[in-house]
Amino acid sequence: MRKIGMRTIAVFAMVLILVCLSVAVASANTPGDVTGDGRVNVLDLILVGQSWQLTGEPGWVAADMNTDGWVNILDLVMVCQHWTG
Ligand SMILES: [Ca+2]
Fold first, then answer.
1. Which pLDDT score is estimated for 3?
2. Better-scored residue on pLDDT, 29 or 69
3. How far, in Å, from the CA of 69 to the mean position of ligand 1?
4. CB 68 within 8 Å of CB 58
5. pLDDT tens digits, residue range 2-54?
6. CA–centroid distance, residue 46 to ligand 1 (Å)
């Protein structure tokens, strides 16, 4: 089994911090832009995946793009339809 090095952990931590900062300054004006960074890419897919099949009040999390209270395939489709890369 391969060990995870400190460099890998540091890179992962940096990506996580950038995602969190993006969420903090979310503009929410771009459809499919879960992170609020103005782009629709793999980071938005990750956030939808992290909330997959969770339910709550409509729009309770950014991943609930269509604000129906359920993070599901419809939210994933919204991300894919507005993909900017
Ligand atoms: Ca939804």
1. 75
2. 69
3. 5
4. yes
5. 677 776 666 655 555 555 445 444 445 789 999 999 999 999 999 999 999 99
6. 15
Dig out the tokens for 50 from the structure: 């992290």
Instruction: Tell me how far apart the alpha carbons of residues 18 and 71 are, in angstroms, rounded to a whole number.
Output: 23
Length of the chain: 85
The CA distances from residue 25 to 4, 20, 60, 75, 82, in Å, are 31, 9, 17, 21, 20
Q: Which domains does the chain have, with CATH numbers?
A: 6-81 (1.10.1330.10)
Contact (CB, 8 A) for 68 and 80: no
Rounded to the nearest whole angstrom, what is the distance from the C-alpha of residue 68 to the centroid of ligand 1? Answer: 5
